[in-house]
Amino acid sequence: MPIFLHGPDPSVYDTSDRKPHVIIIGAGLAGLTLAALLHKADIPFDIFEKSAETRNVGSAVFLGPNVGPLFTQLGIMDEYLAKSKLCATIRLFNEHREQDFALDFSLNNELGGFDGRILPRKVLYEIILGQVPDERIHRGKRMSWMTQGENGVHVKFTDGSESEGDILVGADGAYSAVRKCLYDRLQKDHKLPASDAQDLPFSCVCVAGYTDALDIEKFPFLKDPESSVINTRSFDKPYSWNVFAVNDNKMCWNSTLYLDEESSKFHNNFRTTDWGEGGAEGMCNDIRNFPINGGDGTLTLGDLIDKTPKDQMAKVMLEEKVFDTWHHCRTVLIGDACHKLHPAGGQGATSAFQDAVALANWINALPTTQVKDLEKAFKSYRDERHAAALVATAHAKNMCKFYGKVRFVLVIASHL
């Protein structure tokens, strides 16, 4: 995907104080949240999403107190509270369905002003989506290349359509087309750090789902107005798994496979052919007999898998990387496009929200749409968020070990 300077005369500068037109590639949580904030600030924008239809699978999302001010400002707090459950504990079980210990964070409200809550990712997405005018979202638009320069940014899509604006935001996920296009140019100009040119590393594979309504007599804990993160760690298998009670008598679930050197090679061979809905079935067969807590003491993941529509489960790689290069010229990255976090840390959605808030603030404060002002704003955004992304990554790595892999290694070591 080539990138060239755009504009008939780069020496002609726009010195007006008009608001910039923002092109957002990707209608995930990061892109939609940025769009909602720009809409509140009366900053013109358009979102381009490669998928023709909204397809938002995944498990549950835990959100802590730090999203409270954002949701209040967006006017979605009441809907968020109505569609989520209070969640103040992580409970860790072994394969005998015995609780080993629990982590309590019931002081969230007292210390941070808002409670921690949990809800399906699909529901969270729909809440944010409702804040963005339909006419500003253009679906079935896969970016093929872009050009940028002093006079603006020009984006072309695979269907032959084009768009022009002042700012290009890459909110298109871990395998961002915007990032690839930007990095290709920077690499040719010898301006890309070597670490940014390396592939996204991954050490885990996950299958996740969101059930239909369940029988509350079989799953009596669904009656409880509060939820918990219920994690089970294996004694002798490189797996851990989680279940979460959510509203409407439904549950979210996931299971993580921790890879070694050989299994990493195997899964990498199927990197582009064995993922998404189609790849989930095989892994579900491997995990369906894993025990879960509750009910009559015989429940397994299979009881949830059998009640999960196929279009509400997916197999995904859990990549982990924080990129160094977040912006250049008129282009800037947010969310998974610049930092991909392991979900064990529970920081992916929150980090995306915080990116969107920071970037929206800097865009709103722009004195002009000239590149020199954009680059100052983007640098300030990156300075504000990069260190936080590194902290979130370290936390996610620690929680990943805490949930599963360390237990697996320690149990083996104890038998040597």
TrEMBL record:
Domain FAD-binding: 21-187, 310-389
Keyword DNA repair belongs to the record: no
Domain of life: Eukaryota
Keywords: FAD, Flavoprotein, Oxidoreductase
One of the record's GO molecular function terms: monooxygenase activity
InterPro entries given in the database record: FAD-bd, FAD/NAD-bd_sf, FAD_mOase_fung
Family affiliation: Belongs to the paxM FAD-dependent monooxygenase family.
Protein name: FAD-binding domain-containing protein
